[in-house]
Amino acid sequence: MSKEFVASRLDVAAFAREGASLAGREPLRQRSRLLDETRGEGADLPVQWTAQGQAVAVTGGDPQVWLHLKASAVLPLTCQRCLAPVDVTLTVDRAFRFVADEATALAQDDESEEDLLVLSREFDLVELVEDELLMEMPAVPRHEVCPTEVKLVATDAEFEAQAAAKPHPFAALQKLKADKGN
User: Fold this and answer.
1) In the chain, what percentage of residues exceed pLDDT 70?
2) Which of 10, 35, 120, 148 registers the highest number of CB atoms within 10 A of its CB?
3) The pLDDT of residue 177
4) pTM for the full model?
5) Helix (H/G/I), strand (E/B), else coil: 96
6) Domain-by-domain residue ranges, the chain?
């Protein structure tokens, strides 16, 4: 008989032993940290994810506990080049290996290529989904090609006209020098 798992309080070891999977689809409004990045825009856009548990046999030891996570979301952000709205697609496809405690994770972290997390009977998978999507956000959101021409120079016609009409500060000295020479 298969056990029912809850994403917000996941017994990761049991989940991996069963080779179980979970999936979720929820509106962006339920992921407050992601929604904060959009300044409240796109609250109804979906955040989708799937998780697969796996126990990997190890010679001479207990099986390793693994979790494979896939997640995606589209965030309406502001292009930092043209300041127009831009939809940024975030995708996560990552495997995590769980270890017994924080000390083990720290000891093995430098040597392992995979991401290490501490084993828990009350692991919050939904929070991990949000964390991973936040880490996928670009530092500077922007269009590949902006839909409008980007102004790279700012000019003010009135300021330019006033500057041209104003006499040069050394013009009076030049006139004195010219008068003195006569």
Assistant:
1) 96
2) 10
3) 76
4) 0.78
5) strand
6) 7-147
